[in-house]
Amino acid sequence: MEASTSYQDVLRFIEGMEIVDSHEHLPFERDRVAMPVDFSTLFSHYCRDDLGASGMSVAALNAFTNPATPLDEKWRLFEPHYRLIQDGGYCRAAQIAMERFYGHATLTSLADAEAVTDAIRKANVPGLYRNVLREACGIRLSLNYGGVDHDPEFFRPVVYVSGHCAVTKQAILDMEDRLGASCGSLPGYVDGVFRDMHHAKERGAVGFKFDSAYMRDLHFKPRTQAEAESVYNRILEEGYGWRDSAIGYDERRPLQDYLVHRVVEEAGTMGLPVVFHSGIQAAFRHNPDDSRPLRLWNLPHRYRKTRFVILHAGMPWVEDAALLAKSYSNVFLDLAWDNVISPEIATRALGNLIDTVPMNKINGFGGDYCVVEKVYGHLTLARRNIARALSAKVDAGAMPMSRAHAWAQALLVDNPIQMFALDL
User: Using an 8 Å Cβ cutoff, are 79 and 73 in contact?
Assistant: First the structure.
């Protein structure tokens, strides 16, 4: 079916924009160009999940992504499953990137895999990130989730704080060694967590991330210091010498809950947002019910000065996330990852969100990748999806073209700058 004139208009407008990418997990360029790469690099992150879902064994997956595995063996393992995942969003993004940078829209033989391997190895040199992120993608800046030392030419860091809240004896010892201060009591540990947060901000961090939904549900009950301290004391004293601590994960919840509340509140005083993973989980065999976004409701309700960014807009529970964003002025949504999980669902979800929440509430694109070339593939799909959602509103008479352009500007530039107070 021929694309509408309004779709073509919106897509041209979006393709001409220099955007802000709200979510990546990219390594240093110097680390990437030191890595051994081959065609499997393009079909690793996220494609690995679909390969496993299609029936590829864990042993085969590990061999496929192992640099030491010969190319012909990689192709033998990959080819039967490649045919099964080719039409999904994960693989489509990989193939768009492969065609743009390495000249193959798809792989049909070992010879194709060898040709792509030769091309990706030649391109794996300093300047790769500028070629992909700036020249091909038109990305002005990316928020990179991890450490604070990544190249400021391309990135601003968002650092993880969930590890501080999922306390172990080793985490306490590491905190003491790093700070040179005592964490023999819970107040001492909380002070150490706050010092880490402030130090991260001083070094350029623009937000804090919780990935707790991979380990537990997202409802963090209000707890007293006494409840939390009882657990903290058990962690400190139950394990010693060759004896492991016997405290279970669920038994830690009062301490985890208490620390999440303290970190969220402190982030608000610092003026930095907190970002919560919600919705679909990467890899295999998680409990999806843990990551429902509505479980978070009491945090924005209690901590009105803190900005909350709900990652992936709770995909597939987008309506739940929209309800939070509609109910609380300090809740925002981020569509990172969504456009490759399912381009169709992401397009419908954006159309629903436009109907539901104010324009300043949604980040439109985050690649959420560890492989830099795939950011281009994801962004290509995201641009098309955003153009489809906005042009559908224009064609339905719900907004004029000028408003569609204004929404695109908000989704891809203005909103991430404002949510994370970026210095652009």
Answer: no
